[in-house]
Amino acid sequence: xxxxxxxxxxxxxxxxxxxxxxxxxxxxxxxxxxxxxxxxxxxxxxxxxxxxxxxxxxxxxxxxxxxxxxxxxxxxxxxxxxxxxxxxxxxxxxxxxxxxxxxxxxxxxxxxxxxxxxxxxxxxxxxxxxxxxxxxxxxxxxxxxxxxxxxxxxxxxxxxxxxxxxxxxxxxxxxxxxxxxxxxxxxxxxxxxxxxxxxxxxxxxxxxxxxxxxxxxxxxxxxxxxxxxxxxxxxxxxxxxxxxxxxxxxxxxxxxxxxxxxxxxxx
Length: 267
Ligand code: NAD
Known about the structure:
Layout: E1 7-11, H1 16-27, E2 32-37, H2 40-50, E3 54-58, H3 64-69, E4 80-83, H4 97-124, E5 128-133, H5 146-166, E6 171-176, H6 184-191, H7 195-203, H8 209-221, E7 226-227, H9 231-240, H10 244-262
Parallel strand pairs: 1-2, 1-4, 2-3, 4-5, 5-6, 6-7
Helix pairs in contact: 1-2, 1-8, 4-5, 6-7, 9-10
The structure holds nicotinamide-adenine-dinucleotide.
GO molecular function: oxidoreductase activity
Family: Belongs to the short-chain dehydrogenases/reductases (SDR) family.
Keywords: Oxidoreductase
């Protein structure tokens, strides 16, 4: 799948990974890029960097009517919807119920709303693409933030569900699983001393958002279902796709790799 001449929506497009995706899709020749974010000024700034082929929309992705409205773009029907906006909490078992529900709304339900908004018209037009930003935290035994890890795992499960049900109708879903990217989210997490962010920082493997955008463009061109910017995460997924015994062995080996030596610092 090439982005050239496609109409693309990117939620969370004002900052970090979403901003890098919006800029990269424009550079790849997208015919229209909708930069959607809660942060209206930030979205306008990114759309301004792109120029005529972009528009900014303020959206709260936890609102279904607002996400549904993103399907009506000034550039025509959506070919690629990147459901990328996400939030992180900062708690373990002590996470307040409000944190569970707000993370569930933004990190999971927003993907459901996006699929509901565009999948029927994509099927009617012969196909389309969804790219859902999840996280390595939804794949591995991630230390720290319980609602974040659980909602990201749910987001991966939802993407797989959509893929299973709609691939034969031409709708392809890719899951982006980053693991430590230099963005406002990571900086905020480190500042607030979140365990997940501290663990990522201690790993010493932090990518630039533009590296992730490159992995996405290559992943979409190869029509890969899972897009892993980090080789360790890709290796884990490769093991997972093998038989169950090997998968369990692979998982413990992967967790070992993460805990020693990369997470040698107590967290
Ligand atoms: P970021 O904070 O730079 O960007 C997130 C953007 O989402 C912001 O512009 C924010 O305004 C927007 N947003 C938040 N809530 C919103 C809402 N309700 N409606 C609309 N927009 C909203 O962070 P980022 O690191 O670029 O995060 C992008 C995605 O990548 C998230 O889903 C995040 O969970 C995921 N991710 C990030 C990392 C990392 O290390 N940075 C690792 C794994 C996964």
